[in-house]
Amino acid sequence: MRVTIERSNLLKSLNHVHRVVERRNTIPILSNVLLNADGAALDLKATDLDLEITEATPANVEQAGATTVPAHLLYDIVRKLPDGAEVLLAVDPEGASMTVASGRSKFTLQCLPQSDFPDLTAGDFSHTFRLAATDLKMLIDRTQFAISTEETRYYLNGIYVHTIEDEGSLKLRAVATDGHRLARADVNAPSGSEGMPGIIIPRKTVGELQKLVDDPDVVVTVEVSEAKIRFTIGGVLLTSKLIDGTFPDYQRVIPSGNDKELRIDCAPFASAVDRVSTISSERGRAVKLSLADGLLTLAVNNPDSGSATEELVVAYENEALEIGFNAKYLLDITNQFSGNEAIFMFADSGSPTLVRDIAEDSALYVLMPMRV
Which pLDDT tens digit goes with each residue over 337-352? Predict the structure, then answer.
């Protein structure tokens, strides 16, 4: 294999694929990126056996061929080369090493044979649909913060995506919860998604997707089966195993009888929560909300370091209410708001609270209270 490629093209593709490779691997081949030069392109592929990413980038192929080299090492080398440089990748005749040359810099990397590189066989996909990158980004951005990190409840370690009939129209819905908060977001279901199985996309796949859907003009092709999902985003192909588990019935958690309405201005509220929570302990980040006659008092009491209060004028016309929340969870939700105003719907101090962004009615949040 002998290929000349622009540094910027190679770096962009390596940036996408090297993130999938785990730093610590017991299987040496999984530390490597597969390079395959053919035609007028260089294909790069990396996998951790659950997630596989492939990207093609334009290149001047003098001699076609394929090999694998350490992914993070190659990325670091290319990252440190000067802007605008041309990079030569050349594998020796025995296939044991690859030279990376640019200007007066020259590196030799150990290769492992391409035949050892695993292939995440995709199989047949039962449903295929196209989704605007902006819609996919919205579904991820509005829900990913609520994904559980508790490995024992593995079925909560991702975003649950499914189609659902809502108010007479079919929606593609994303839901995430960790048991303390729940986030839900909808877009109109694209053609081809009807009847798709409900799937749980793993947290790592969600993180990679989030970085890939940054171009608002791109349309993403999504292919779904019971066990795998594949995204085609421009020249990038991302294939992932799905979490094999049953997502809980989240509808039961969403309260329907909450009748006490609080309207807040998002920015002042978020700033106030952030300020008073400065004094809270890492263990119990509880902030108490006291509501009465159009006034909201935020209070934090930490026996070790002191206390803090702040008052905000709000729109609230129900009986007085005191309720506590985890300050970090409150801020996570307020960070999702795209508008200036939000609505909190309370039942009582011990029941889940419903939160909506007035500017974006396609998203909804549920927050469990804390004892304070």
Answer: 888 999 999 999 999 9
